[in-house]
Specification:
It comes from Coregonus suidteri. One of its GO terms (biological process) is myelination. It is found in: Membrane. The chain starts with a helix and ends with a helix. It has three helices and twelve strands, in the order αββββββββββββαα. With 231 residues, it is of the alpha+beta class. It is 39% helix and 27% strand. The protein has a six-stranded mixed β-sheet, with no helix packed on it. It has a three-stranded mixed β-sheet with strand order 4-1-11, with no helix packed on it.
Length: 231
């Protein structure tokens, strides 16, 4: 009985179509290029499923100032198709690898009129539900410095200035401490010398007295000693 129920559940699961899951598509945010150059616009996706043989990629383009988008490229059934009436009919090439979930295209010989937004859509059946992703193309005579580079330079300059201020602060503290130490040492040295001088000045000087009186005293002592000897 259990075997029959298991077989029936397997058959039912095989008949019921698989539910689709969300697919996540990735492109760049903004690309800069020079007039007359070529540029690669990347498009890839994430899906929980294995890459299907029926995977598809679609690119559309909306020029700056335009309201509507036009289809410029489509990949399906293992073959790429370029729109033969659009502005990129002779200048667009498929350089992706669908087996690796890569739907990138190459735009050649760029001009100012190519400025606009390119949108990529991908399907990996049964995962067909997902939000498209867009990248903006800006064509210049000279590629400008990006805002990130300027921001990084400003941050680097500020950090360098802060480091310099800290170094100067600690250097000044060291010099002040050294100056104070030298002054204290010199003051203690002067005080020590002053005490030694005062001590030397305070040493009593023994007075020898009058030499004539000293001789008289000595002669008097000799007389007394001679008298004692006679007795």
């Amino acid at each position: 009985m259990l075997t029959i129920l298991a077989l029936a559940s397997v058959i039912l699961l095989g008949i019921v179509p698989q539910q689709s899951e969300a697919i996540v598509i990735y492109t760049g945010w903004e690309r800069h290029a020079l007039v007359g150059s070529d540029i690669r616009l990347s498009c890839s996706f994430f899906s929980w499923r294995w890459t299907s043989d029926d995977v598809t990629f679609s690119w559309s383009y909306r020029a700056d100032g335009a309201r509507d988008s036009i289809s410029v490229f489509h990949y399906t059934g293992g073959a790429p198709y370029v729109d033969n009436k659009g502005p990129f009919r002779d200048r667009l090439e498929f350089v992706g690898n669908p087996g690796r979930r890569d739907g990138s295209i190459l735009l050649k010989n760029l001009d100012y009129g190519d400025n606009g937004t390119f949108t990529c859509d991908a399907k990996n059946p049964p995962d067909i539900v997902g939000r498209t992703s867009s990248v903006r193309l800006l064509v210049f005579d000279k590629v400008p410095i990006q805002a990130g580079v300027i921001t990084g330079a400003i941050i680097g300059a500020v950090l360098g200035l802060l480091v310099l201020i800290v170094v100067i602060y600690y250097l000044m503290r060291f010099l002040v401490a050294r100056r104070v130490f030298n002054l204290s040492v010199s003051k203690h040295g002067k005080k020590g010398k002053g005490k030694e001088g005062s001590q030397q000045r305070q040493v009593p000087v023994l007075s020898i007295g009058d030499p004539s009186k000293l001789k008289a005293t000595v002669s008097e002592k000799k007389k007394q000693e001679s008298r004692k000897d006679k007795k």
